[in-house]
Structures are given as structure tokens and as C-alpha cells.
Specification:
The chain is an alpha+beta fold. Helices cover about 25% and strands about 40% of the residues. Strands 2-1-6-5-4-3 form a six-stranded mixed β-sheet. The longest helix has 20 residues. It is globular.
């Protein structure tokens, strides 16, 4: 039988995810990066995987040509029984440059290192309606 986590660990995983999205939405890059492992493995949709704490910011640059901002509307965060991963369900709101908003569902899977920092971050979202070059590519 797998290792069971304590309630405190579960609460910490949920809070880490919420704190991360809050920091990103507030534009607090420093706070967001403190929650990430230096060896972060990151993947945004079908873009190639990247490594390092700057990877999420680099992926965000891909969207900057089509959006003025975004909001991570966290609906739920569910840690696994061992406290090694957590899945977040979101409504992503993208503020387009023309003033309109695009709201799409998203799922994010996180894994945590032994210190509780995020060391794997995979975003599953369809941003094709934004018309961002590169975000719609598939890689095999």
C-alpha cells in the first residue's frame, strides 16, 4: 500500500499551488519562483518541455503577442494520497489585446520535491483561439 500523507502535507500542497497562481496573477515573479525547484520540469500545452525556474515565464512570453494579461481562476486543487502530486482545475481567463476575454478550462498537474517546492509543472489547455504562433504546434 502507498504512503499516506498527513493533513498538514495535503494542506501545504494545496496552499503552495494557490500561492503560486496568486503570485503569477499579481505579477510577483520573485514570490512565484521561490515556490519552484531550481530543476523545475515545465510543459505548457503542446510546446516543447523546458527546465528551470524561468521556464514558465518563457512560455508566458509566447502568449504576450495575443494577450495583455491572464487570470488563473482556481476551481479546485486535489493532492494525491502520497502528497507527491496535485492536480488543479482552473478557468483560465485571457485578456486579449482587443479588450475581449477568452475563458477556457485548464488542468495543471504539479509534482513536488522533498522540500515541498514544485518540481514538475504540466499545463493542459487549448489556447488555439488566441491564434498564438507556436502554441498550436505538435511535437513528436
Amino acid at each position: 500500500m502507498g504512503r499516506q500523507m498527513t493533513s498538514a502535507v495535503a494542506d501545504h500542497r494545496v496552499q503552495t499551488v494557490r500561492d503560486y497562481f496568486d503570485a503569477v496573477d499579481a505579477g510577483d515573479r520573485q514570490k512565484a519562483q521561490k515556490l519552484l525547484s531550481p530543476d523545475l520540469r515545465f510543459r505548457f500545452a503542446n510546446l516543447p518541455p523546458q527546465v528551470g525556474v524561468d521556464a514558465p515565464m518563457k512560455a508566458g512570453q509566447t502568449l504576450r503577442s495575443a494577450v495583455s494579461g491572464m487570470v488563473h481562476g482556481v476551481k479546485s486543487v486535489r493532492p494525491d494520497a502520497a502528497g507527491e502530486t496535485a492536480t488543479a482545475e482552473l478557468d483560465m481567463t485571457y485578456h486579449r489585446l482587443d479588450g475581449s476575454d477568452l475563458v477556457v478550462p485548464a488542468c495543471v498537474v504539479f509534482a513536488f520535491d522533498k522540500s515541498g517546492r514544485i518540481d514538475e509543472y504540466r499545463i493542459y489547455v487549448d489556447v488555439s483561439e488566441l491564434g498564438v504562433h507556436g502554441a498550436e504546434q505538435t511535437h513528436g
